[in-house]
Amino acid sequence: MPSTRTLARVALGTFLTFAGTGHLSFARQEFQAQVPDWFPADKDVVVLASGVVEIVQGLALVSGWNQRTVGKVVAAFFVAVFPGNISQFLEHKDAFGLDSDAARAVRIAFQPLLVAWALWSTHGPDEREVGEAAAG
Asked: How far apart are the C-alpha atoms of 110 and 31, rounded to whole Å?
């Protein structure tokens, strides 16, 4: 039976893979609203590149490959895209149903939880590791 951390890691990986796919297809314009106007790159290129990054990170999380390192990379990614969430709030841009400042503020409040999710789900020992250490 998979541990809670394993299930959380796979769920986050699935979410990232889905979101990354959205960057490349059905939600491409929505994601462009999160690229700050001051960012010195083409918004579409940023959305496409970040989509590829999210897919790679999501698949790495699901596979369990090098969990601790991947968790740190995913957490850093969530920190790196945080200015986009703030920009969306400050510039009053609607996307993903975030059509009010209150809704955009709630999204900002949840970003640290994504960082914590990435770290928690990849850095603690799962139940098998604890059992193996006790049997040792």
From this structure: 17
pTM (two decimals) = 0.85
Structure tokens at 44: 């579409």
DSSP notation for 102-135: HHHHHHHHHHHHHHHHHHHHHHSPPHHHHHHHHH
Q: Which amino acid is at 89?
A: F
Query: What is the residue type of 114?
Result: L
SS3 1: coil
How many CB atoms within 10 Å of residue 54? 24
**For residue 80, what are the contacts with CB-CB under 8 A and spacing of at least 6?**
none
> What is the per-residue pLDDT for 33?
83
Rounded distance between C-alpha atoms, residue 30 and residue 95, angstroms? 5
